[in-house]
């Protein structure tokens, strides 16, 4: 295969097209796997938290085709989540020519670490943030009003919460890349730590729906820990860069 550093603009577009196609094929494969387990995913994973609140939330469907669209949405999003390692791998392979020869050997570690960060955020949100948020909303307000939640609204709430948590858990990986290209330094992160805390609390308030302070703290505290981890990762990245130079 020819050295991609000598490729022209159109060649890079062609390379990008094939990387996107391979990423989409991974999503399709993940969607097929999700489809075979869709009933279990819907009943035992996504809608199960609603049955564990006090009082239990009542989920209703108000459209004839509502459940069909809901299932298709879960199949596609499930396929995308399962194919996260493949998507990250395709992105990495596309930017690989811009990296130093010594940095290209880290592709496996980067794919694994990025995937673990994302999936850790999803798991953390599902088992800690989601029960706290649903429990708050189920017990809030007058007992005369019965909470009957539209299925699509409930699913939108669930997916937005867990996916947003997965993305914000990528903070260490983002810090690694920014430090690699020289845009972020440990001294800068330490200097503006107090400002970062304010931003993190604002992000936690935006990502977590509603006024539930418990779920906001459940996301904000891990983000503060991830920020400190990011400083260490940034320091390590800068050290390796200086050694290589």
Largest sheet: 2 strands, parallel
What fraction strand?
A: under 5%
Shape: flat
Oligomer: single chain
Low-pLDDT ranges: none
Radius of gyration (Å): 21 Å
Which structural class do the helices and strands define?
mainly alpha
The number of distinct helices, counting runs of at least 4 residues, comes to 11
Average pLDDT level:
82
- Order of strands in the sheet with the most strands? 1-2
State the order of secondary-structure elements, H for helix, E for strand. HHHEHHHEHHHHH
- How far apart the termini lie comes to 28 Å
Number of domains: 2
Helix content: over 70%
* DSSP summary, beta strand count: 2
Topology of helices and strands:
Blueprint: H1 9-36, H2 38-46, H3 48-51, E1 58-60, H4 66-82, H5 84-95, H6 107-139, E2 148-150, H7 151-168, H8 171-180, H9 186-191, H10 193-207, H11 213-244
Parallel strand pairs: 1-2
Helix pairs in contact: 1-4, 1-5, 5-6, 6-7, 6-11, 8-11, 10-11
Q: Can you characterise this structure?
A:
The protein has a two-stranded parallel ribbon. Helix 1 (9-36) packs across helix 4 (66-82) and helix 6 (107-139) crosses helix 7. The chain contains eleven helices and two strands. It is flat, with a radius of gyration of 21 Å. The mean pLDDT is 82. The protein has two domains: 9-169, no CATH class; 170-245, no CATH class. By secondary structure, the chain is an all-alpha fold.
Describe this structure in a few short sentences.
The chain has 245 residues and is mainly alpha-helical.
Characteristics:
245 residues; mainly alpha; two-stranded parallel sheet; 11 helices; flat
């Amino acid at each position: 295969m020819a050295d991609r550093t000598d490729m022209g603009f159109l060649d890079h577009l062609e390379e990008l097209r094939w990387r996107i196609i391979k990423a989409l094929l991974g999503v399709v494969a993940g969607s097929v796997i999700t489809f075979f387990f869709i009933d279990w995913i819907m009943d035992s994973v996504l809608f199960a938290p609603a049955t564990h609140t006090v009082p239990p939330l009542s989920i209703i469907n108000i459209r004839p085709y509502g459940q069909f669209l809901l299932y298709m949405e879960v199949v596609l999003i499930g396929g995308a989540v399962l194919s996260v390692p493949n998507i990250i791998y395709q992105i990495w392979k596309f930017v690989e020519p811009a990296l130093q020869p010594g940095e290209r050997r880290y592709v496996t570690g980067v794919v694994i670490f990025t995937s673990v960060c994302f999936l850790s955020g999803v798991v953390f949100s599902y088992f800690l943030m989601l029960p706290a948020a649903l429990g708050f909303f189920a017990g809030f307000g007058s007992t005369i009003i019965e909470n009957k939640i539209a299925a699509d609204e409930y699913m939108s709430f669930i997916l937005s919460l867990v996916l947003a948590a997965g993305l914000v858990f990528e903070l260490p990986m983002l810090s690694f890349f920014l430090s690699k290209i020289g845009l972020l330094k440990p001294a800068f992160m330490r200097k503006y730590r107090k400002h970062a805390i304010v931003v993190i609390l604002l992000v936690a308030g935006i990502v977590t729906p509603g006024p539930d302070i418990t779920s906001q703290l459940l996301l904000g505290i891990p983000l503060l820990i991830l920020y400190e981890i990011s400083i260490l990762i940034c320091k390590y990245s800068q050290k390796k860069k200086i050694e290589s130079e």
